[in-house]
Amino acid sequence: MGIQFGGDYNPEQWPEAVWAEDLKLMKAAHVTTVTAGIFSWAKVEPRPGVWNFGWFDRVMDGLAGAGIDVCLATMTASPPPWLSRAHPEMLPEGPDGQRRWPGGRQHYCPSSPVYRSHAVRLVEQLAARYAGHPALTMWHVGNEYGCHTRQCFCEVSAADFRRWLRERYESVDALNDAWSTAFWSQAYGDIDEVLPPRAAPTFPNPAQQLDYLRFGDDALRACYLAEKAVLDRITPGVPVTTNLMPQHKPVDAFAWAAHMDAVALDFYQDPHAADDHIRAGYVFDLMRSARSGQPWLLLEQAPGAVNWRPRNGPKPPGAMRLWSWQAVAQGADAVLYFQWRQSLGGAEKFHSAMLPHGGTDTRIFREVAALGAEFAALGDIAGTRSRAEVALLADWHSWWALELDSKPSTALDHSRIALDHYRPLFEAGVPCDVVPPDRDLSGYRLVVVPNLYLLTARDAERLATYVRGGGRLVVSFFTGIVDEHDRVHPGGYPAPLRELLGLRIEEFWPLDQGVAVAVGEGGTTPHRRNREPGGPYSGRADLWSEVIGLEGAEALAHFTDGELAGRPAVTRHSYGQGAVWYLGTRLEPALMRALLDDVRAEAGVRPLLPGLPEGVQATVRAGAEGQFLFLLNHGDAAVEVPLPAAMTDALAAATDAEGGAGPTDSVTLPARGVAVLTEPAAGTASTPAEGS
């Protein structure tokens, strides 16, 4: 069906006379798909059990008549006022015991049986009414789970938490052991004594906090699954999804992806962040990897400015097109926006839309329509996939545990550390999967572990098996410290990885804010002897350092000033048929790039295109009918990109742009420019990877 293109459609905000114009303008903008009904609960059920679907029937019929597919929302994201008035016990509470009131959205406790029962009843009505409707192509359950109500700490949640604990631990003795309750006289005589980790005089029990984060994620997912079960029963064969959020701590994307027929994402890039395309790259690769390379859906982005940042700058000309193509280049088969028509009232009236307040004679609408035409012309991209030889590991349980209080440093930010390791791969033009540590790693030449503070013994052995079999592994600081209950692994840091890494860490030495230390080359192994003195492993490092003792590993770089001067900072250890590198600090970006370039070379991992100009991203999607090479210029100046073989700019050809007529061996990309290249129909040119 090609690349899906469109946005959230909220016709309830407008008189019916506007709807016909909406359909006409959607066709002009090449809209193929809308998500409808996200916030329609109060209008379709204005009173308990009183259903008013007639207006929505007309919306669905109109969309079907215009040939526009509908990703139909279950309408449960924002309960109507009558429900919370009748059942105030369904409202969420914070850890301070304060109730969160209606007036915004997501004003429900995820564990509330009242909310769940009313939501399921609504979904049953929706599914029965629109099963078989010609516009229905997908279900959209809820909306941005955990965006506002990330956790609830009310008595309903407390009871649900105790149920969850009984299923997990079976006995109070097992819970006491897992939570280390011998500390601070916290031992429980019965699971009924357990409360949520509400506001306390000092640090709540970290294992209790970790389990409550797990429980909170499970409670949100239980809401999703309750609705999905109804949809699967009444409309089997219609795929079901929900919209995840980027680097969203409350919701474990890997756990949710297993229950989604297609992974979907809302992503709002920041025009004021010069390198936000790298954060986007990481998130997009994670979405693509969550279901093992299956194409995913960008369900929301902004065509211009948003309304919720301190400074809401618009996207400059070409940025919306560039960032939309970036999503497709990294595996998206849908590009949708919030929303179709810009609201006149409400909290998001200054959030941009495909059809702005100014109407069709606006830059945004013209850019949207032009992009829709491009996607329509290159529909063959849909369904193609990408392949990576490098995996970067991420784990929500470790993230939750890492950022709890009472650590050696509160400056350890999971998302920032991940991007520090992803950036050198992205800038080198190296495809990268982002996967959980329990994924099969055998197909990767290189695996990078930015941080797995929490590491189970099973996953530690998985890493060792990978390296023994010939894999190359990079591991960074403060990894392998605690088990799944946030208990320190006995045997010295990092106990489950000591043999693999060939070292031990005697003491953590976090660096103060604004403090950097010097790092210099060390070691005389054959693969290092040809380095010039002061070569690429000399530079600065910050955030963290450690007292590393070598137990078989070699030092590639040492700290050369500060309290740890002369001690190892970066090591390498041959293990089995493979090798592992360990970073005991955060290297500055240039130094990190130099190290990972060397590791990649040893692992046999090459960029898609050699000598890629700075700021240019290269990706490949391939299928049975051929492959597409995407080139995206995130820089602010035009660049020329040599190609490995003569290729045709399919995007330029499809839009009749100059230079799109025939094969070429190089492409000139303007600032924010995009090229989508294919091999000539009768050609035999090698793939970019082979040509490098």
Overall mean confidence score, pLDDT: 94
Rg to the nearest angstrom?
27 Å
What is the fold-level CATH name, i.e. the topology of the largest domain? TIM Barrel
CATH superfamily of the largest domain: Glycosidases
Total beta-strand segments: 26
Give the helix tally. Answer: 19
Biggest sheet: strand arrangement: 11-10-12-13-20-19-18-15-16-21
Biggest sheet: strands, sense, closure? 10 strands, mixed
| Quaternary structure type | single chain
Q: Could you tell me the strand content as a percent range?
A: 15-25%
Spans of at least 5 consecutive residues with low confidence: 523-531, 683-692
Q: Outline, from the CA principal axes?
A: globular
Which second-level CATH architecture of the largest domain applies?
Alpha-Beta Barrel
Instruction: Give the CATH level 1 class of the largest domain.
Output: Alpha Beta
Describe, in plain words, how this protein is organized in 3D.
- This protein has 692 residues and is an alpha/beta fold.
- The chain folds into three domains: 4-151 and 220-381, Glycosidases (TIM Barrel, Alpha-Beta Barrel), CATH 3.20.20.80; 390-603, 3-Layer(aba) Sandwich (Rossmann fold), CATH 3.40.50; 616-691, Golgi alpha-mannosidase II (Immunoglobulin-like).
- It has 19 helices and 26 strands.
- The chain has a ten-stranded mixed β-sheet with strand order 11-10-12-13-20-19-18-15-16-21, sandwiched between helices. The chain has a nine-stranded parallel β-sheet with strand order 5-4-3-2-1-9-8-7-6.
- Helix 5 packs parallel to helix 8 (206-234), helix 10 (276-290) packs across helix 14 (414-427) and helix 14 crosses helix 17.
- It is globular.
- The two termini are 33 Å apart.
- Mean pLDDT is 94; it is low at 523-531 and 683-692.
